[in-house]
Amino acid sequence: MQPSPIINSRAKDHVAFLAEALDRPEGIGSMSAAIYDTAWLAMISKTESDGSVHWLFPECFQILVDSQSSEGGFNGWNADVDAILHTMAALLALLKHDKQPSISGCPCPSDIKDRIARGVTFLRQRLASWDVESTVHVGFEILVPTLLEQLQLEGLDFKFPGSAKLLAINQQKLARFSPTVLYAPIQCTLLHSLEAFAGMVDFDKLSHHLRNGSMMGSPSSTAAYLMNCSHWDPAAEAYLQSVVAARKGNIPSAFPNTVFALTWSMSTLMESGYTGDELGSDNMNKLAGYLETQLQAQKGVVGFAPGLLPDADDTAKALISLSQLGRPVSCERLIEVFETPTHFMTYPHERNESFSANCNVLKAILHSKNPSNHLPQICKAVEFLTRSWYAGKINDKWNLEVQYSMMLLSEALTLLLKLWEEDTSLDLPEDLISNRVPIVLFQMLTRTLSSQSEDGSWGQKPSSEITAYGTLTLKQLGSLPWAKALESEIQSAISRSVSFLENNQASWNQPEHTWIEKVSYGSSLLCEAYCLAAMKHTGKYAWGEKVSGMHSVPLAAVDKFSSLFSRLPALSTEPGWRLRASAVEGFLFGRALRQVRLDVFPRKGMGKDKYFDYVPICWTAANNAAAFGLSADIMWDLIVLSMLIFQVDEYLESVGEQCKGRLDEVRAVIQNLFRERTAKSQSDSQNGVSQNGYIANSHPENGHVQNGHSHSADEGSELLVEVKTTLTHLIDWIMNHPKVQASPPTAKKRLSQEITTFLLAHVQQADDNARLFNPGKTNNNKPEETFFNWVRGTGAENTSGIFSLEYFGHLLAPKAGKECFRGAVQKYLFQDLGRHLAIVSRQYNDLGSVARDRDEGNLNSLDFLEFHENKQKNDQAGAELLRIATYERDCIELVVQKLKREVDSGTAKAIEAFVNATDLFGQVYVMKDLGTRMK
Predict the structure, then answer these.
(1) Rounded distance, CA 775 to CA 766, Å?
(2) Half-sphere exposure of 365 (CA within 13 A, CB side)
(3) Which residues, 6+ apart, have CB-to-CB distance to 696 below 8 Å?
(4) Fewest 10 Å CB contacts: which of 6, 684, 693, 799?
(5) Does domain 619-927 have CATH number 3.50.30.40?
(6) Is residue 777 over pLDDT 70?
(7) Exposed / middle / buried, residue 299 (Cβ in 10 Å: 0-12, 13-18, 19+)
(8) How many CB atoms lie within 10 A of CB 604?
(9) Which residues pair with 709 in a beta bridge?
(10) Could you give the CA distance from residue 68 to residue 87 in angstroms, rounded to a whole number?
């Protein structure tokens, strides 16, 4: 669908406005107003030569007063920290005006004390609910503590739950701070927040940092400088006067932002398909010439406004803009200034890296003349971005909207694939380009489709700007070869979103406050640019054989799996398109899974592993149905674990067959494995060896070494040696996972015990099989143990449900040395959930494998006396077992509900996904036996 001539005309007008605004002395200021900065200007008083004192900007104070809400706060938009910073600064201004009535030019409102009281109440409430650790706003860790101190000097003391964490972050930030950093001739980001350093630095030593009268383009920082230096600085006043005049007293957090406004608009429009001629060649040449001048002035890098500290984002966007116009500039300086060992920084000494900045840097390098000359930097950026996605960490420090991050990543990675297909010298690592990049792209596609509203929009409320992000994401990803199974859904979603944008053109310059500065802001220019880009982008690209052949996703198999899964109770409400998406995603993970299929178990003498294709699809379907509660990292670990669990089952069944009469020796091998590991760990701990837990492949004993593990001469037969080697590989894979290694010793001990119990339960099952049955014959031998006791003991323990949930808990740990589930209640509920999941798994497994268990002589739940007291037929007994499984499923629902109330929302979603997957495996077993038959 081509945009109408009206859209093209609007895009041309957009560029014409930028070209005209470029001639204004003050530059371009596209950011929305912020009460925070407005309040700082409202606090400035000036002493004239005759000794009279007056408020310098009474219009700012009036705007502040008028903006107070009925609840007492000031505009907070999207985040607690917004409301906190706005309200703190506003309270300071109100207090200063109230306590200094002799200053002229701005009479206080009659109800100012009531306004202050309501503001204090509002601030206490917001501080009490503030999640400090999740806050990403620039400089909050130094701004909030300083404002708290200043309010304390005014007689207001605030205590809140996150204060200790805030202080810790503040101390970390300022640990290496010295005023000499600010006195030096080199600009730094701290200059943008000088209000945080009142009383800590000599402001008289900072005047050399003024650029066009401003401190790093920040009105609040410049106001703090003007209020704290001993001599009035007319240049700073002139800058603030120009901002007030340009914005009529509504002060933004940065002004001007000329380079930012130009580069974001130009690159966004041109990357979506607009040509220089369509946008107005004269105006585009004017803008390009301006950017070239700025890059030359700062030796190949730029900041958000002329003369300000360069940053990677604005530099990258400038390079992309010029490249799109056929006027490329070398990216060497971009790399030289902003590259770090692991990623690209936005500014030097930043506390948190920026996801979006690395997307933009990657795109800038890929748009350069010879991208293959920068292969290490391309790999570094792609590694950082895909690793961040896999870890579920794509929330950006410059934009609160996750769809913005996905839009940028989709642009960067599809551009990477295009160049990789065209340029044979772009030699990227196989795992990176063939495994991770396709999975990341497809997961973004599924999430974007899932979050679209029925009216075609995206956002918590219908938003043109966020809808433009979503539309651009779909148009980038819709033509991918492995997205063909969703072609109709993608086209329908794009049509709905385009219709929404067409019908809401009046809101294209009404931005969302999702952009992050000191406080959140919006930009009418950027909002319009993204809407225009979304309407223009065609989304069509003809992929060649190199990319098309990366993943062979069989559409017939996708249809088969989605049809099967649609009949399962756990997915009864899941939309059909997302079942197909889950199947495709499962096949994408399956490619990587095949590469590790034989890393632990040899599978000698085994039949076809029918479970293989089901394993990743069960996890992708479960995760997608649970609102994507699992990160790709965690899901991949669980996919591999599930495959290994199936392999454990088939391997130990085989061992049981071969070791009849010698199962006690197999038990001894398993028990000794864990004794050795425990002894080794304790020895290292006592000797001061830092090993972070159990050690893989390091058991020096008397005897020979095989596959990195030693074996004593008296261990027995060759088979038992192989059992020890194979199970050691399994245990190493689990216990040496970085998340397990980083866990507290008590948590590692629990996991070790559960693995031991799991493996020993398999041996016990083999013992029971040998004792009670002869394969292929009808047996009258029945277990003497009750079904209730067995299914809560051996029957549950050999399903892996208990140990795998314990392992899952390690994967969810928030940080090294911490457990996800803490305290008696959480741990009890979590462990109880594991027991119920294991029981249900056993019961579903046995319902689906009755015939195979009969043929192979395996103990099945239906072999217990309780199911034969009334001489039921097999189908009647099966119905009773299903009723019991349904009861256990009800127990799971109860535990999950209670556990969710004890944990945060992210952990709750992850638990839901895990339970979903357990359900799916069980329900698939009821319909289709996935076990491997012994040859």
Answers:
(1) 13
(2) 30
(3) 732, 735, 736
(4) 6
(5) no
(6) no
(7) exposed
(8) 9
(9) 706
(10) 9
Residue 933 has pLDDT above 70, yes or no: no
Q: How confident is the model at residue 714 (pLDDT cuts 50, 70, 90)?
A: very low
Q: Give Dmax (Cα) for the chain.
A: 113
Same fold, 258-551 and 619-927: no
Among 401, 591, 596, smallest CA distance to 514 is for 401
Q: Which residues, 6 or more positions from 852, have their beta carbon under 8 angstroms from its beta carbon?
A: 858, 929, 931, 933
CB 525 within 8 A of CB 30: yes
The full 3-state SS of 662-690, as one line of letters, equals CHHHHHHHHHHHHHHHHHHHHHHHHCCCC
Q: How far is CA 155 from CA 74, 99, 150, in A?
A: 20, 12, 9
How many other C-beta atoms are found inside a 10 Å radius of the C-beta of residue 538? Answer: 12
CA distances from 272 to 2, 387, 473, 504, 632 (A): 12, 27, 11, 20, 29
User: Is this prediction's pTM over 0.90?
Assistant: yes
Per-residue confidence (pLDDT) for residue 719, from 0 to 100: 87
Among 108-122, 274-288, 657-671, 729-743, name the one with the lowest average pLDDT: 657-671
| Close Cβ partners of 340 (under 8 Å, ≥ 6 residues apart) | none
Choose the weakest-confidence range: 274-278, 797-801, 866-870, 878-882: 866-870
d(CA 514, CA 527): 11
| 641-to-389, 803, 804 alpha-carbon distances in Å | 21, 11, 8
**How would residue 697 be classed by pLDDT, with cut points 50, 70 and 90?**
very low
According to the model, what pLDDT value does residue 717 have? 74
Q: Are 493 and 430 in contact (CB under 8 A)?
A: no
**Spatial distance between the Cα atoms of 623 and 915, rounded to a whole number of angstroms:** 10
- CATH number of the structural domain 258-551: 1.50.10.20
CATH 3.40.190.170: does it fit domain 35-247? no
Find where tokens 């300022």 sit.
Answer: 174
What 8-state DSSP symbol labels residue 248?
T
- Average pLDDT in the chain: 91
Q: How far apart are the two ends of the chain, measured CA to CA in Å?
A: 57
- Of 615-629, 829-843, 856-870, the one with minimum mean pLDDT is 856-870
Which pairs with CB-CB distance under 8 Å and at least 24 residues apart come from 710-718? 715/669, 716/665
Task: Please report the pLDDT score of residue 851 as a whole number.
Answer: 84
d(CA 353, CA 363): 17
Cβ atoms of 775 and 857 within 8 Å: the answer is yes
What gap in Å lies between CA 824 and CA 466, rounded to an integer? 43
Phi and psi at residue 811, in whole multiples of 5°?
-65, -30
What's the sign of the alpha-carbon dihedral 831, 833, 835, 841? Answer: negative
CA–CA dist 916, 618 (Å, integer)? 9
Mean pLDDT in residue range 158-167: 94
Token output for 141? 């860790």
Residue 521's nearest CA partner among 237, 320, 247 is 247
The answer to whether the CB of 138 falls within 8 A of the CB of 400 is no
In the chain, where the domains are located: 35-247, 258-551, 619-927
Query: What stretch of H or E contains 122?
Result: helix 112-129
**CB-CB contact of 61 with 42 (8 Å):** yes
H/E segment holding residue 520: strand 520-521
Q: Are 581 and 486 in contact (CB under 8 A)?
A: yes
Computed on alpha carbons and rounded to an integer, the radius of gyration of the chain in Å comes to 32
CB 571 within 8 A of CB 534: no
Residue 69 has pLDDT above 70, yes or no: yes
Q: What is the 8-class DSSP label of residue 604?
A: T
Q: Which of 703, 580, 704, 590 is nearest to 639 (CA)?
A: 590
